[in-house]
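Final paragraph of the annual report: two paired records, presented back to back.
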Amino acid sequence: MNAVSKRRTRSFARFMPTGYLLCFGLALLATLAPRVNAEERAKPTSVQVRLDEWKVSLTPETVPPGPVVFEVTNTGKVPHALEIEGRGVEKSTPRIMPGASATLALDLRDGAYEAYCPVGKGSHKMLGMTNRLSVGETKQASAENDAAQVKGGKDDDDEYAGGGDDDDAEYATEHAAMHDMRAMAPAQGAEGGVKIIKVVGGGPVIQILPGPFPFADSAMAVIQSRPEDQKADLAKKAHMGPYSNNVAKIAGQISILAIDRGAAGDSVSGVAQFTAKDGARWKLVMDRVQTKDIPYNPRFGGVIMGLFYHGASNVHTPLVPTIQSSVALWSIAHLYKNDQLVTDNAMVHVMLLSRTRRTSDWALDCWDCSERPVEELQLQVTSAPGTPPFDTPGGFLFVNWEKSSGKAEAM
């Protein structure tokens, strides 16, 4: 080999390692780049969730597809949980006590997902604890989110005036006039349209008088999770309150027409008449929905159908066994005693619920009565806030019709 060839060979040998390393480095970067980008894309998106009575707040409400971590805090006064459902996903957190937090990690595809509280067999969700999460660019998800209706508190302006005296003709007129309310119902309401129920009391009629709650130990487990001021009120009622086994058999009749229009515009019309244990004759004319929040239980008011609550459901007072109701309503009424007007602002709560009492002595005989037939009609009447209690045992009126019926329909 001549001198020129030797120099070329040495030059090629000298530069070959550098070129080789350069090529190897470029190939390595090309291999690692997708992996690095994938790791960046896989970084979880955080969604802050706040649960309280009765709503689910999401921040943000739209996220990119991929891993999502829900950081959930219960800012309410009763236990809640978070469930995410949609696109084949249905996962939830454990039950979260008031003031506590939990996380839920999911991998979500493009689409719309429902975020709701599953506590109370759907009752918390029915009361408004539901929201929509949009994943990716989904116009349909946005439309569903905009169209979502929240079940909850009722507008204070939707009331109907009425009244009457105690003669039989007036009673019959009021009773028949309830059917005319159907014409008031709009063509469409929230949550699937307007719902109407006609309730008629039947069977034995009993008056419930003040006394201890028979399931005080079971209720106390629920009461202990409530705020201090609520504990004191509930503990007092558990000792001597309106849900007792101190009952008397009486006579009476009741008929109600209730319209559930969704989040606002509910209607109630009804008449109840009964003779109490002491011989006093009472008449109640219901003509307006009560829409103010019930203490410790916001968004209760108006008419709600198909609600699972009370007892251990973490919805409303635990001083009633857990029940399933065809209808629960809150009304304002004219109250008469022995033909004399007592008040035009009596506070009324009515439930057509699953049976809670045994037929032999009408005592409460179940802590969870939710699987029993819905045939017990409860009427509870109390004085308006800031006014004296009624001149009755305990200051309230509480009457049950033990074999009642309700016919519901949707419009």
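The closing record of the year follows.
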Amino acid sequence: MKKLFYLGLLGLFLFEAANVFFIMPMPGSQQINSINLAYFLYSWRWIFRCVWGVILLAGLLQAQWKRKWQPAVWLLLLAVIIYFINFNMAADHMFYKPQHITMVNAANNKVDSNRLVIGVQHNGEAKAYPIRFLGYHHQLIDTVGGKPLLVTYCTVCRTGRVFDPQVNGRQEHFRLVGMDHFNAMLEDASTKSWWQQATGKAVAGKLKGQQLPEFFSTQTSLAQWLQLNPASLVMQADAAFEKQYDTSLNYESGRSRKKLTGTDTLSWQNKSWVIGVKAGNLAKAYDWNTLKLQRIIHDELGGKKIIIAL
């Protein structure tokens, strides 16, 4: 019966570890196609927990323990591990949505004008969301010109996207659930489907295959955005997360060398910068270093002549 207890103990530990391994940037986890397995484990998590819990409890109650404190120590250790995995390593417990979205005009703005922003315009209203803040929050829902928008940013793949949060005719709410192939994943509150941040496509769950309509946005410096849109409002820091926001310009300037969010200065490496262009079902990437040297690249994609300019 002790074996039954230890089997349940090991089963619970391995399940909880696997449940977070496949959707967080663990060594090797992001290089494999594990989204279906990850969603299966997550969706049935309480079934797995109950099964392993029953096995553990059966062994605990029926085994003869010479040292009464021994199972208590193992249970306490397991409880600490489970708490750490679910409340310290879970994406939505590491990165929180802003409690308050404060927007001010240029005259009252306190954000450094050198900071990069995601800018949007609609119905005569313009707003700028500094990547410094979005990089921590990953996503927020705001209204621009009367239209609700889901503003997102993934610092690992350096992708900013803005989407219409309407799903099947109703405004949806999202939470950060993890990461797949080094891109943030969001979960909707209604169906618990998982959405890829870079594309706005549901990759797992009931709505798999559906697409959030993308809303046109611009990534540029705050100074340039305000020059183009002098009346724009600018998002300010949420006081509740002031310590979590990046204080340097290393990330935005490409000087960061961190493993996940850093930049490779060489061309065509995993963390190198590229400019991506899509035309219908065709896509092409242009090397940032080449663009810096040439400044203007003339090309053709999908039968259309294009210009990539820096």
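The first helix runs from residue 2 to 21. This concludes the annual technical report; the extension proposal builds directly on these records.
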